[in-house]
Amino acid sequence: MSLALISADREAAAAVDPSDLISFDSLLSTEELALRNRVRTFVREDIKPNIAKWYEEARFPLEIVPELAKLGLLGMHLKGYGCAGGTAVEYGLAAAELEAGDSGIRTFVSVQGSLAMSAISKHGSEEQKQEWLPPMAAGEAIGCFGLTEPTAGSDPSAMTTFARRDGRDWVLNGTKRWIGLANVAHVAVIWAQTDTGVRGFVVPTGTPGFTATPIEPKLSMRASVQCEISLENLRLPAEAVLPNVAGLKGPFSCLNEARYGIAWGTMGAARDAFEDALAYSKERLQFGRPLAGYQLTQQKLVNMALEINKGFLLALHLGRLKDAGKLQPHQISVGKLNNCREAIDICREARTILGGNGITLEHSPLRHANNLESVRTYEGTDEIHTLILGQKLTGVGAFR
Ligand code: TGC
User: Fold this and answer.
1) Which pLDDT belongs to residue 13?
2) Digit-coded pLDDT (tens) for 59-72
3) End-to-end CA distance of the chain
4) Which of 122, 170, 260, 270 is 20 to 30 A (C-alpha) from 304?
5) Is 148 close to ligand 1, i.e. is its CB under 6 Å away?
């Protein structure tokens, strides 16, 4: 690629990113910028014009799945089996762009790739990988991840879903809750207690005894669907178990992947809210001049931009550590906790600049803030990540 083209690429990217005060893009490679810009263009052209409608209709737009697959975003950080084999940083950059569109869109990619595909890729048999990963990467099969239960959220060790052996078969009974896209999924990775501890199972959702019911109405993540799954005497062959992991480290190893993506994604939502408020502040006149010309508005915008810049730097640092194979779980908690917390504050502050117009679906900040209520709750609440970090700092666990 010619130097002129590289520089044009960088300029094009910077030109559409008014929150970037620190030349963040100079930290990215040409390939990373190109990938980021491809996803940004997709979100600008295919998500943003439609998101208010999908949000109002409370539906996940299944029609975008082929395009997400074409962009290589489904299981993009996995290697082989039709997956794109991207880096952690590339995955993070994509997550940020998708969540600038809506948390529901990023969540789909995250549940599909970081949770369901990742579980099969990390812990599955060769047959399970061959059967599920290629169609999932191609968007022909959708996956979900069943860990949380009605009475076991922050503490998955309290799960009561049980898989008992019946000859060579397994028979599952129990209830899972808050499971993204379970009603449209073709396959569910279900975690269940067994006589020998927690195991994962690959469950085709057409198996008799599997029912997924959307939880509604919701005030958050409306362009996504979360379900309650009922498992009633659901019979599986011996080969359905994930053979290569036993215990809670199985699901937690997948949550590491998804939590990492959230550290990036939330900053995408924050950036989009900031950009909406910035643009509005330049146009909206009050007391005879644009809101942007008032010191209180500028202070809000500057504080938002500072946190966005810091949040992206943190996410990038975590991504570089991950690509070097050095990222530790507590460091993911730093990113998940900090960036969710800051993003929700930024989106709420952005809404104040929009005044009354900020409560309509014409503007993104309140939609993002509402979504982020879910994002700060799933895959480890603020409280859980605080305690993970508290334990790291003090050496004392305070969960129980
Ligand atoms: P603990 O005794 O600490 O650990 C049990 C085993 O797991 C290992 N482990 C990890 N392994 C890899 N990565 C991590 N981050 C790990 N954390 C723990 C640990 O070494 C141990 O292994 P071993 O070999 O000794 O057995 O477990 P604990 O029960 O004390 O739990 C601690 C705590 C509170 C941190 C954990 O329970 C936790 O993270 N809770 C939060 C649960 C959570 O995030 N749930 C999210 C559910 S999934 C979801 O929300 C999907 S949303 C997307 C959608 O479907 O829409």
Assistant:
1) 47
2) 999 999 999 999 99
3) 56
4) 260
5) yes
Structure tokens at 111: 């549940």
Contact present, 199 and 241 (Cβ < 8 Å): yes
Q: What is the pLDDT of residues 289-307, one digit of tens each?
A: 999 999 999 999 999 999 9
Q: Is the pLDDT of residue 272 over 90?
A: yes
Looking at ligand 1, which atom is closest to the CA of residue 224?
56
DSSP run (H or E) holding 386: helix 382-394
| CA distance to 181, 320, 321, 345, 386, per residue, from 390 (Å) | 33, 24, 21, 22, 6
Radius of gyration in angstroms for the set of CA atoms belonging to the chain, rounded to a whole number: 21
Architecture of domain 249-394: Up-down Bundle (1.20)
**What pLDDT score was predicted for residue 14?**
44
* Closest ligand 1 atom to Cα of 329: 15
Q: Where are the domains of the chain?
A: 19-137, 143-240, 249-394
DSSP result, 102-149: -HHHHHHHIIIIIIIIHHHHHH--HHHHHHHHHHHHTTSS-EEEE--B
CA distances 13 to 46, 87, 129, 306, 398, Å, are 18, 20, 37, 19, 44
β-strands 197-204, 187-194 pairing: antiparallel
| Residues 136, 116: Cα–Cα separation, whole Å | 9
Contact at 8 Å (CB) between 65 and 139? yes
What single-letter amino acid sits at 230? S
Q: Strands 187-194 and 143-146: what pairing? A: parallel
What residues act catalytically?
379
Choices 1.20.1250.20, 3.30.930.10, 2.60.120.200, 2.40.110.10: CATH for 143-240: 2.40.110.10
